[in-house]
Amino acid sequence: MTAGDPRIVDLRAKVRDERALLAELSARVSPDIQKLLKPASNLLDDVEGFFLAPEMLRHPPRNEQQMAEWLGHAGNVLQRAVEHREQIERLTKEHGPDAKVR
Predict the structure, then answer these.
(1) How many CB atoms lie within 10 A of CB 6?
(2) 90 lies in which domain range?
């Protein structure tokens, strides 16, 4: 399994896109709300730094089914990051971009 695998390339592109959306949202909300975005960023770090890390993709060796499962887990974590960002976007639409967090 190489970094050129279309599934890996796709996941990396989705992480990049999601980071851009997070940065855009962060730029237009209060520091309090920016703190709420950290879990989504951490999840993206997990996808990139753990699931898609070159050493993790190489070792242990995985057969095709195992690799599909591994990348499926990466996709699930990415989806959790997307859902978290979307939830914060809904909250900012409902309460405003400068809402206070208690």
Answers:
(1) 7
(2) 6-94
